[in-house]
Amino acid sequence: MTCHNCQLKAVKAGKDRKGNQRYRCDKCKRRFQEQQEKLLDTMRLPEEKALLVLQLLLEGNSVRSIQRITGVQKRTTLNLLAMAGERCQELMSERIKGVAVRDVQADEMWGFVQMKEKTRNRKALSDERIGDAYTYVGIERNTKPVLAFHLGRRVEDHAIEFMRKLADATTGDFQLTTDGFAPYRWATSFAFRGRGIDFAQLIKVYAASREPETRYSPPVVVETKVKPVFGRPDPERICTSHVERNNLSMRTSIRRLTRLTNAFSKKWENLHAALALYFAHYNFCRVHSSIRKTPAMESGLTEHVWSMRELLAA
Predict the structure, then answer these.
(1) What are the residues whose beta carbons fall under 8 Å from the beta carbon of 14, sequence distance 6 or more?
(2) For the stretch 276-300, what's the b/e string if a residue is b when 16 or more beta carbons lie within 10 angstroms of its beta carbon?
(3) Residue 304: inside a domain, yes or no?
């Protein structure tokens, strides 16, 4: 440790009440301690409680249930979520880049912010961040990492933005499979121009519901159609089952995406923060049951399972 005034090496001089090492300069006789890393920036919430709040969010608890369990106020929890989500978004952008992949599956999952699209149209609201909110997700079939995600609407512009993120996250040639969303064809050719990927769509045909009581029942798939778009996709590897299974994990772990509850997001920014936190934790902290390690370890991005503190500090 170097003295800030004399620029000379200081010697250890005991510890303070919190156990932090103190130092003394033999020339100017000043005492000081090394500046401590502030994990939560200016938030006054104890670090242990903050990590517990984030863990409860990742286990599917609502903001109000976390308040009842931990005593942390709703506004504090939302501020913590926003801070953690911003850091996790930066982490995903920096670490998940140029990853070597073989089979990539992409899908989009429906959600909504503040109100559903039907209500938004009835009220004639112009704010694009109210109503339907689709989470675009790209996942590698074998090593399991979420390569890219995008929160947007189910339109061509947002499909292009998602494919751009997916192109930045990957490298080399690979096979890509999506559902039958038509804008994916133009978005993929635009984002991956100059790269020799094999692209196919798996189109599912659903049966029409016969009874009004089955409104919330899952639709029945009566037929699947395989449509190669460009390249030479292997028919045996055209599949979206893995990314669709990931959708189930998202609905289970992210309370804002749980159907038929009052825990939906009231702000677009909070939903985006919750998604960023979930995907970063999924990649770096959560041991996947099928590969028995984290997706980041399987992809060669890290060498160990990260703790929640490491995730925030990274």
Answers:
(1) 22
(2) bbbbbbbbbbbebeeeebbbbbbbe
(3) yes
Is 286 inside any structural domain? yes
> Which residues on neighbouring strands pair with residue 40, listed in sequence order?
none
User: Which range of residues forms the domain containing residue 21?
Assistant: 1-36
Q: Kindly report, residue by residue over 213-227, the tens digit of the pLDDT.
A: 556 677 788 888 999
For residue 181, the number of C-alpha atoms closer than 13 Å in the C-beta half-sphere is 23
- Statement to judge: residues 2 and 107 lie in one domain: no
223 and 184 in a common domain? yes
- Report the CATH number at residue 151: 3.30.420
**Facing residues of 2 across strands?**
9
Q: Indicate the number of domains in the chain.
A: 2
CA dist., res. 84 & res. 78, Å (int)? 10
The tens digit of pLDDT for each residue in 35-84 reads: 656 788 778 899 999 999 999 999 999 999 999 999 999 999 999 999 99
d(CA 36, CA 16): 13
Pair 238, 106: CB distance under 8 Å: no
